[in-house]
Design goal:
The complex is a heterodimer of chains A (238) and B (403). With 238 residues, chain A is of the alpha/beta class. Chain A is built from 8 helices and 10 strands. Chain A has a single domain, classed as Rossmann fold (3-Layer(aba) Sandwich). A 6-stranded mixed sheet of chain A has the order 6-7-8-3-9-10. A 4-stranded antiparallel sheet of chain A has the order 2-1-4-5, with helices on one face. In chain A, helix 6 runs parallel beside helix 7. The longest helix of chain A has 18 residues. Chain B folds into 2 domains: 183 residues, no CATH class; 178 residues, no CATH class. Helices cover 59% and strands 17% of the residues of chain B. The chains are: A alpha/beta (238), B alpha+beta (403). At the A-B interface, helix 3 and helix 4 of A face helix 1, helix 11, helix 12 and helix 14 of B. Bound molecules: adenosine-5'-diphosphate (ADP) and magnesium ion.
Chain lengths: 238, 403
């Protein structure tokens, strides 16, 4: 089930949060979004993060995604202390190691699917020819070959999210972070997207951390982390 | 990376083609105005320089008064010359090719039912020598006609055209006032001056005839002098000034009540005019570029706000501050540059039309074109910097959450 374990070696730790707290604002207005979260994700895992709205799921994902840093505690990604990195160093870490999928797809308007998928490769400095080959391959991997020249406006929600997934995996990241990726999709499309993610996890060994509040979707994951009031309430495996 | 950024900028601009077009209008107009004026100015200067060459750079004019730019009163009160002054110049100053005293008046020239308002100049045969003016038909006054003040005249090409059309006027008569003048010659056409006056709209009569029968006095309004080829006009000018001070009995230390103008002076007047014009144009350009720049800054700020989510997405994907910065800077530079290029094209087209209408050559000035491109790009950088920094400093999480 876990490719790291299947290879018979020690499961490698990819993400390690230790006593992570996030406080927005100061004094009276201080808002404790996370209160001492301990979480470890190993390579090849598929983790679902669940919990009621406002429980700190997105805050936790932003920290894992190096978009934000903890107020207190330590976050190590691949044994790098992210809190000690500068803004630009975190940008480079995201560029090299992370893939993002958002609830609202966040594709560029009036820009073809292919060009959307090429975007992270541009920031990596991949030359033009290789870039479009890689992007086309990523689109094929999400079942969208033939749709390269369609703009987001010409694609259904499910297709748009698949383009977004292609954009996230085209750089072969260490981890895919998805914050409510099925939140804007009907159940049929949601299942499609989930099957795709499961596929990447099982076949490519892609590590996935996904926020969802739908138990049906969380069921695809190997581990479910339940948040409540900024802390982990329960962890379920299987 | 630069290429991608450039393409991206082009696409962003195209996405809002109308808005982008309106935004850069200030730059387009400013650049076009400068290019037009500088190109036309260059053409006019080229024409004037050529005309002065045609006039003969060895020509000088002596006039009573204190110069074109001096107080008008002095000129009005200064005593006119006499024929004797011109004779003295011819006699006492070496290296002169010709001397022509002249007096003019605006009058009607009449032939049958045709009449035309023109300038009648009383002068001598020296006039065509000094002005280096050929005759297309007939001859200039002979000494007998000059001495006895005969009613003969030489007409300019415009007058000939107006009164005679295609006919040969030599031997015909025209009337000035109530006096009949026999036409003995026609001047070759010279065309317009650089300042747009028709040089061919004139009638020449012997000076004595003019004084006795038209003006009723013995005044000479100006004296044309030409130095021999290769003689420095500034030396001749000094000699003339010296002689005229003596003849007009001007006390040492007192101001001249006449002035000698050579072509060099016209050239320097022209240069000064051009400089004023250039400064003025510079100011116009600066203002329009400033206005254009503010427009660009405004539109870039709007663009940053509209694309906040895009910026957040790009940051999540791995764009560094400087990547975002570059994206928006390149966009504003491309926007301003496109405005500049449109302005150049428009300006050159307008200059080509204007040059044709004004009858001056179209002188392409690559320097000003390069300057225009550089300036509009600089406007893009300067006014794009603030919005670009705004974008680059966005917090990725806030940006991603932006609706
Ligand atoms: N930038 C912020 N400033 C202030 N409070 C915030 C900010 N971001 C999130 N919060 C608060 O932190 C808590 C957790 O938010 P979030 O992580 O988005 O929850 P979830 O994703 O589980 O719905 C919420 O109460 C939210 O209002
Ligand atoms: Mg959330």
């Amino acid at each position: 089930m876990n490719p790291g374990a299947a290879r018979g070696s020690e499961p490698e730790t990819l993400i390690q949060l230790t006593g992570v707290s996030k406080i927005y604002g100061t004094g009276q207005a201080a808002m404790h979004a996370l209160r001492g979260v301990d979480l470890t994700v190993t390579k090849g895992e598929f983790v679902a993060v669940m919990g009621p709205s406002g429980s700190g799921k997105s805050t936790c994902m932003n920290i894992i995604g190096c978009l934000d840093t903890p107020t207190r505690g330590s976050y190590r990604f691949n044994d790098i202390e992210v809190g000690a990195l500068s803004r630009d160093q975190r940008a480079i870490l995201r560029r090299r190691c992370l893939g993002f999928v958002f609830q609202g797809f966040n594709l560029l308007n009036r820009t073809s699917a292919l060009e959307n998928v090429e975007l992270p490769l541009i920031y990596r400095g991949v030359p033009m020819g290789q870039r479009s080959r890689q992007a086309a391959a990523a689109l094929a991997a999400v079942g969208l070959s033939g749709w390269e020249n369609h703009t987001p406006g010409e694609l259904s929600g499910g297709q748009q999210q698949r383009v977004a997934i292609a954009r996230a995996i085209v750089t072969t990241p260490d981890v895919l972070l998805a914050d409510e990726p099925t939140g804007n999709l009907d159940s049929e499309r949601s299942l499609e997207v989930m099957r795709l993610l499961t596929d990447f996890n099982q076949r490519e060994g892609l590590t996935i951390v996904m926020v969802t509040h739908e138990p049906d979707m969380a069921a695809f994951a190997s581990r479910q982390i339940h948040f409540k009031d900024g802390a982990i309430e329960a962890i379920r495996t299987g | 990376m630069w290429w991608e950024t450039f393409m991206l900028a082009l696409r962003a601009i195209r996405r809002n083609a109308l808005r982008s077009g309106l935004t850069v209008l200030g730059i387009v107009i400013g650049v076009a105005a400068v290019i037009t004026m500088v190109t036309l100015g260059g053409g006019a200067t080229a024409k004037v320089t050529k005309d002065i060459g045609k006039l003969g750079s060895n020509m000088l004019q002596v006039r009573p008064g204190q110069g074109f730019h001096g107080p008008g009163g002095a000129r009005a009160s200064a005593e006119p010359f006499e024929v004797a002054d011109a004779e003295a110049l011819a006699r006492e100053i070496a290296d002169l090719e010709a001397v022509a005293p002249a007096a003019s008046r605006s009058m009607q020239v009449i032939r049958g039912n045709e009449n035309r308002s023109t300038t009648v100049t009383g002068t001598t045969d020296g006039f065509v020598l000094v002005r280096d003016w050929d005759l297309s038909a007939g001859r200039i006054f002979n000494p007998g006609e000059l001495r006895s003040g005969r009613a003969v005249c030489v007409i300019g090409a415009t007058v000939r055209e107006a009164l005679f059309g295609g006919l040969d006027p030599v031997g015909e008569t025209v009337r000035l006032d109530r006096i009949s003048f026999k036409i003995i010659g026609v001047l070759a056409a010279k065309g317009l001056t650089s300042f747009g006056t028709d040089q061919d709209d004139l009638v020449l009569v012997p000076l004595r005839t003019f004084q006795r029968r038209i003006a009723g006095n013995t005044d000479v309004q100006r004296i044309y002098v030409s130095a021999r080829d290769g003689v420095a006009t500034d030396r001749v000018k000094i000699e003339i000034e010296h002689l005229m001070r003596q003849r007009r009995r001007i006390a040492p230390g007192a101001e001249d009540d006449f002035f000698v103008r050579d072509m060099q002076e016209i050239v320097s007047t022209l240069t000064a005019t051009t400089r004023v014009l250039t400064t003025l144009l510079g100011a116009v350009a600066a203002v329009s570029l400033l206005v254009g720049g503010i427009g660009i800054m405004n539109i870039m700020l709007v663009s940053v706000t509209e694309r906040t989510r895009e910026i957040g997405t790009r940051m999540a994907i791995g764009a560094m501050e400087r990547d975002v910065m570059r994206q928006f800077l390149v966009e504003s530079v491309v926007l301003a540059g496109l405005g500049g290029i449109c302005g150049i094209i428009l300006g050159l087209a307008a200059a080509a039309v204007g040059a044709r209408l004004m009858g001056v050559p179209f002188v392409f000035n690559p320097g000003i074109v390069c300057l225009a491109v550089a300036f509009s790009a600089a406007v893009g950088i300067v006014f794009g910097y603030f919005p670009a920094r705004q974008a680059a400093r966005l917090d990725p999480i806030e940006a991603l959450r932006h609706e």
